[in-house]
């Protein structure tokens, strides 16, 4: 994908969208863009409140939802399908005729969400039903019955096609919240070992996630990364120095550094997770700037695939290196009573997942919106954390990455090389053709 | 009340472990026919209140009914369990989620705080297991909330109790209920009336409340367990409840450490004999067993989770084929094998068709051991029910000195088990005061036998949506003699008194 200047491009596309034939509808019917953002608001809640949705699993859902949405919009507007570009995606069923885009995207997202979040609890189920019915009633109000039926059927057909594709990627089934019942630890001094007294987390999260089929990455899973400093317990070693950096930093954290650590902590079940954080950022921008539907769908699809592929390759590498966490090393060699600010995630250290997926996210969003795109981030406002402002996506990603050092859960190499890995992933996404 | 001869039989034991009590399910034979029913608004709740309203020494059982009627079961047990459902006790009502017994007006007849999805009610005990709604008479300003938790205490110098009511979600919110926790309320009063309640703001979708003297300061604080599924910016809470002062939260500056769990229930007991209570917090997957990090007069409210170390994470089913993570609700410590070490009972059950969690999720019965660890015995004891449990209770239902068990299941039959022994040596203590707070809530009862001293705090609250108000039960293991004293709520200690074993001993002030 070629970078472009945001304002010029949006103006152009807004003109194209207005030129398309659109059915007449009641004045208070929600626009397709409103429908999408309403669904994504709910999806972010479902991510938070569905126990299976650890960050890698969440990223997968965002990818399939985004692709489903994009394919619906692409068909409606004659734009380029991702079929033949995204790995394993076959051409989709074609539109039977005219569709109403609000009904189309509502039906697509309703069906896809219902399946991807089939294992959410009773409150989530109730919320999905309410959203489907209430928003469905609004988007179909006053609309021709045949058009409504055709649009709904097409949305459902697109979702069915995407969900069937999703079933074959190796990531559809997650058991025991992602923690294997049996797992043999590496057994070397540098190997990852459990870091908490949580019984469920005595095995690492999703050790096989690196085998999930990626969306854009091709070949023998590219975007590997440089190794971390050689493991050593020698105080003169580079590895020891990285540990000392974590230790010393966390002993002298400023209030701002603590806030940064917590802002990007993005814990599963207590937040929309790291990939959801970036989706939240995009949703805020879309609402603020009234992004037109095709731009919105394109961005959601690209961002979803970017974070999903970043997690896949990151997880592959994590289990190849199988590196211990700072809490293990520091307590073993530096300070047995050391406590990091954040809870240490239950899987190997290198590289940092948040850094990798934030690297991919910023590079994809930068390709869409430009490199100096300023925005506010209110993802955690309801949780009592303040809105943060960023001059660019890259600045946000870099802050997300360094937050893991402030939180005491990653060494420097995992952060720096994680960002680079994400940028590599973004290159693949940015080469895909859509608009 | 029938009392059996004291026996100390060699019962079945885990390999080099504690004797496993044998529980016999007598649900059907005992006439214990009840169901807690409902859909979304009754995914939580289902509590049971166990107390003696007939005066015969055998406890009655009141159970929430959800969309069905709540019911009071009159206890007619002898050697085996037997209950008769009361026809018109005054406690038959709809939309009940739970209940706690407490003698609000200090007339010596236990009253009942009834939690409802809607307005809560305060039911005055009239004697002979009859009750009337005294909410208006007592100035109780009931709010229309999804009530899920309750606790009571008597603040220093107060002649009227302080009640805390916990509530859950704004049930009008369908698409976005998350972040819409409704308020918890604190009712204080005097001269036999409650004042308008104070809001315990912020409230975080509470499922258990407990007034507890966590630091033995003589002033109980309010422990609050909250469900992270619904709050935003929330955590577990501990409130200062100081007489005549506004409630305020313990802060990080005071040592409170943030903990965010699917808080469902609280059980409390001094497990390690240091004089300070430990807390078991139920949740989904791993549960928490909290020990005060630095006991002593300068103790800060900081706790170390020792659930893993002591074998009570109870994170997944221990029997059956369904090994998905567990969902825990009611919890309670009692000594079910009378060996002198508190045991832990946890009611389990899937929330409602949540495929990420076990649907065949057996209740736990962990037996406490001398080294401070616990060993699971639910299956060997015969109580590994796979129904969708919520509330429950451990209580001596037939007066034989053995703690029996009942469970309230959601959309399924309630169950009751008789503990068939081995019996062991036991004693029960009933502290009684004149005037307000007759049952000495937040007093500490200490039982000394040999070189061991066991302690229990008299509590009204905790568990999941229900509680027990009965003489405190102590197993004594091989002891042949024991004595007890009560540290009354104002801090004054009674003299040590020699106990008659195998009986309820009343200690009066």
Q: Let me know the number of strands of chain A.
A: 2
Oligomeric nature of the chains: heterodimer
- Discrete helix count of chain A: 14
Structural class of chain A: mainly alpha
What is the alpha-carbon Rg of chain A in Å? 22 Å
Overall pLDDT score of chain A: 93
Helix-strand pattern of chain A: HHHHHHHHHHHHEEHH
Task: Note the gap between the termini of chain B.
Answer: 24 Å
Query: Overall 3D geometry of chain B?
Result: globular
Largest interface comes to:
A-B, 33 and 37 residues
Which outline of chain A best applies?
elongated
Give the strand order, joined by hyphens, for the main sheet of chain A.
1-2
Count the DSSP helices of chain B: 2
Taking the sheet with the most strands of chain B, its summary is: 9 strands, antiparallel
Percentage of residues in helical conformation of chain B: under 10%
Q: Summarize model confidence as the mean pLDDT of chain B.
A: 95
Proportion of residues in extended strands of chain A:
under 5%
Distance separating the two termini of chain A: 9 Å
Q: Work out the strand percent of chain B.
A: 35-45%
Roughly how much helix do the residues of chain A carry, as a percent range? 40-55%
